[in-house]
Each structure stands twice: as structure tokens, then as C-alpha cells.
Fold:
Amino acid sequence: GGEDPPLDVPLDVNGEDLTGSQTAKTFCNSFSNWNEVEISQTVQPSSSESESNQSVKIWLLGNERRREYPMRTAPLVAPAEGGRQVVREALAEKSKVTELWLRQK
Structure:
């Protein structure tokens, strides 16, 4: 609970940023500007057995009602192949879509 959210993610209750602008306009392109892309399912093989049970914490956006989960973070286990690194790379990617299978702790 008492952790700070990731940088550049505003804490707001009503979907508006501090200036009163809708955050959806700030962080999302309109649907008409989206492009369909292929989903990458390739991950690098694990270089270490210790990567098979690495825990990751994913920050969830929106209020509790929207995300349908009581906590602001979801504790999960990284994919066996690639560990935390493939999760980190997928979440940092700006345009490539990657499918990852994370397990609940």
C-alpha cells in the first residue's frame, strides 16, 4: 500500500489532471489514430534457473471500481523464460505489442 506510483502517472480521483484536462487525452491517442499490429510472442530463453520464479509487481491504473482489484499493485510471477527482464522490456516498449503469461503468486 503506501508506495509511490510510477513516475508520470497522476493520482487523480475523477479522471482529470491538475489542470482539469481529461487524462485520457493526455496519455492516449484517439482510437481513430490507432494502427493494428502483430503481437510478439517470442521471448529470450532464460539464462538462469533463478529467473523461473522471479516476482514482479505491476502497477494498476484507475480507481478500484475501474480496475476491479482492491490493491494498486498486482504481485505476480514473471515468465519462466526471461524473468523480470522480459516483463520490463515489454512494459517499456512504445509500439511493439508483446504477449506475456504472468502467474499469480
